[in-house]
Amino acid sequence: xxxxxxxxxxxxxxxxxxxxxxxxxxxxxxxxxxxxxxxxxxxxxxxxxxxxxxxxxxxxxxxxxxxxxxxxxxxxxxxxxxxxxxxxxxxxxxxxxxxxxxxxxxxxxxxxxxxxxxxxxxxxxxxxxxxxxxxxxxxxxxxxxxxxxxxxxxxxxxxxxxxxxxxxxxxxxxxxxxxxxxxxxxxxxxxxxxxxxxxxxxxxxxxxxxxxxxxxx
Length: 217
Fold this sequence. Notes:
By secondary structure, this protein is α+β, with helices and mostly antiparallel strands. It folds into two domains: 4-111, Roll (DNA Polymerase III, Chain A, domain 2), CATH 3.10.150.10; 120-213, no CATH class. It has helices at residues 10-26, 79-88, 127-144, 151-163, 175-182; strands at 4-7, 31-36, 39-47, 58-66, 73-77, 96-99, 120-126, 191-197, 200-203, 209-213. Strand 8 and strand 9 (200-203) form a beta hairpin. The longest helix is centred in the middle third of the chain and has 18 residues, at 127-144. The protein is globular, with a radius of gyration of 17 Å. The chain starts with a strand and ends with a strand.
């Protein structure tokens, strides 16, 4: 087990910083970093159940980066801690080594492990549709949530909006669109493939992946 990871260059570092900045706007609590086999996988939560009666889907964003040191770890840390370390290394040239915080944070979604294989493609959805659904849903959430509203009401509204299907022909949670748009995965017009594996659904636009497990599985 190691407590550092290495990225190829400053471009990869900037890419990770941008991804973390977007993830922090949605949820600033935690990201899960898994390093193995020369790959750093960075999971960010967009929506997940909070409490026994919450039936929200679990929706995670995933970006992968080439990891050059051979590090092996599975850590759950505040995204701000990684962002701060990357900012301090901004002027570095060549490979960039990043240290991890000394301790992890606790969050309910980090114990859920999406499958790594056995994915079967079931169709696709237009990135234009995803962008429209994300925009309309975000507007609905903003209108429904007054200022200084408690976390429970905000979560209930977000769950109601993002748990709905994209459309009658696409029984996919609208939160998938919100995740893809808010994490910067949608760039230009493309047909985004959809895959299933067990209880999980995955959308894979060019710039990342969105993983969805409805309710509590």
